[in-house]
Write a sequence for this structure.
């Protein structure tokens, strides 16, 4: 008798598939993100210009203040630290994401080449202003140039593993930023101001 590998049998009469089990697992993503106010923070980041975003960078001596590093006592202390630090060091965290992005592109030259190819190709085709490109006896319309750029860049882009690079970037950014925000204690002045309220 053949058994479906995706079927988990519990007892002689009851059987569940892995799809049934996964359907019962419900992770409250909204509850997790709402407690950290992530949607509001990201909407604020989107509305700012790059110059404004990096205008209030905190000094490195404050960002890497080893005297303020400590393990949070409980989840509410951790949540309070993360909420405070995500707002206070937001420009520094944006710089961390930028540096990790540059690092990920410099370690994946093929992806960097594909990005430069697509941006340069789009810019060059746009500079033609709808006119045909003529190289000797060869003529190409803008639609043919866009098609050629698409046919070259898509296979190269897929071969350059952009999804792996993006997942690494998201993971490395999350670990770096949330790790720093969790273990960096709030300054004494903010603790006193919270007690006064």
């Amino acid at each position: 008798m053949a058994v479906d590998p995706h079927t988990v049998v519990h007892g002689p009469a009851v059987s569940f598939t892995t799809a049934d089990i996964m359907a019962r697992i419900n992770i409250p993503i909204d509850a997790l993100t709402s407690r950290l106010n992530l949607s509001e923070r990201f909407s604020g980041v989107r509305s700012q210009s790059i110059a404004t975003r990096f205008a209030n960078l905190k000094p490195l001596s404050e960002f890497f203040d080893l005297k303020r590093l400590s393990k949070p006592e409980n989840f509410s202390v951790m949540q309070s630290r993360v909420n405070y630090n995500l707002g206070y060091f937001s420009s520094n965290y944006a710089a961390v994401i930028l540096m990790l992005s540059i690092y990920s592109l410099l370690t994946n030259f093929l992806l960097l080449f594909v990005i430069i190819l697509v941006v340069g190709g789009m810019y060059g085709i746009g500079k033609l202003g709808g006119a045909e490109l003529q190289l000797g006896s060869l003529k190409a319309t803008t639609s043919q140039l866009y098609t050629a750029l698409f046919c070259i860049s898509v296979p190269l882009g897929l071969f350059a593993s952009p999804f792996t690079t993006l997942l690494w970037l998201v993971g490395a950014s999350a670990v770096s930023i949330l790790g720093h925000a969790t273990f960096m204690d709030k300054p004494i002045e903010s603790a006193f101001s919270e007690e006064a309220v």
Observations:
- Residues 162-183 form the longest helix (22 residues).
- The mean pLDDT is 79.
- The beta strands are 7-10, 14-17, 133-135, 138-140.
- The longest strand covers residues 7-10.
